[in-house]
Design a protein that fits this description.
This protein has 343 residues and is α+β, with helices and mostly antiparallel strands. The chain has two domains: 143 residues, no CATH class; 175 residues. 41% of the residues lie in helices and 19% in strands. Helix 10 runs parallel beside helix 11.
Length: 343
Amino acid sequence: MEFNHIEYRKPFYKIKVYLKEHLKKYSRLEKLPLSYEDLTRYRDLIPIMDKNDKDTLWRGVIYDSSDREGLNDQLIRIYEMLVADGDKIPFLKIENIDFCTFGNSKPFRIKVVNELNDNYDFYYVKIADASRVYGLELEDIFSPDKISFLVDKDTLVEDHIVGVPCDEFLAKHKRTKIENRMRFAKEFVKFNERCFTRLLGDMRAYNFVVEITQDFDNIQYRLRAMDFDQQSFEGRKNIYLPQYYTDNIAMVELAQELMSSETAEQYKRQERVAMRKRYLATKQKTKSLLRRMKNDSISTKDNIRQLAKELSIFHKNDDFLELKSMGHILTLHLELQIGVTIF
C-alpha cells in the first residue's frame, strides 16, 4: 500500500472576475460588513488547550475593548447573512473569536450564542482562495450535503460543518469496536470514491468529519469533507484517494476485513450513480463553474502535466495528455467517472 504526504504548502490563488461572476449569479458574492484583515488587528492570543491539557493549535483572540463591540455587531450581521439571507435574528451574541495557527487558510472561528436558550453555532472567516471556492462549490454540487459560504474580495465566510473529526473518532474507537462497522466501512468506500471523482485532495483523517445519526435501532454514518484547499491542485492521482493516507489506514483495513473487492466496487458504482443524479439536478450551475475553472490557473504546470499523465493511464484515454488546465482535466475525469457529457 502506498501512503501520501503533501510536502509543500499550497499557494493562494486569487479569485478572478469570471469566477466572481459565477458566485454573484448563484448568490455567493456579498458585501460583508468586515474583512479577514479587520480580524487580524488583535492585541493578543491565548493558547486553547483540550481537556487533556494538549495544545489544540487554536488561540483565543483578545481585542481592545473599543474594537470588540463594533466587531461583535459586524460578526452577528455576517452570521445573519450566512444562515438567514440577512434577516434579523434576535438574542444573538458573539461569545468567542478564536484563531488557528495551523493549516493553509489561517481561519478565525466565530462562536455565536443565542442568549434566549444558550444554543450555539460556529462559522469561519478565512482568506479567500480560488481553489477553496471551487472545492466548496463542487462539494455543494456533488456531495449529499449543502454548503453555505459567502465571498467578498479577499474574505471567505464558511458555515460550520457539524461532526466529529475523523482522527478523534478513530482514536476513541482504538479499544472499542465501532458500532455498525459495516455501515462505517461502506461510507468510507463511498467517500473515497466521491473525493476521487471530484478531485478533492488531502483528505487525511483530521480534514473530514464523521456525522453520526441514530436510525431506529441502528447507527448511520456520513463522512464529510471540511477542508477544500487541495481542490484539483496536486499532480499525483493517489493524492485524491483517501485510502492512500497513513491517517486512514484503520478505515482501509476495516473495509478490507468486512467486504470483498466486488462488494466495494458495487458501493463505488452506487456513489458514481448518485453523483450523476446530483449533476443532472444542477447541470447549469456545474457547467457555469467548470467553464470558469477551465480558464483559471489553480495549480502548477508540472502538477497539471503529471495528473494528466496519470489519469490518462487510469482511464486508458490519451485525451488527457492534451489538456492544459486542472479545469479541463476535472471535466473529462468527471465525464468518464459518472458517464455524462458536460460540454
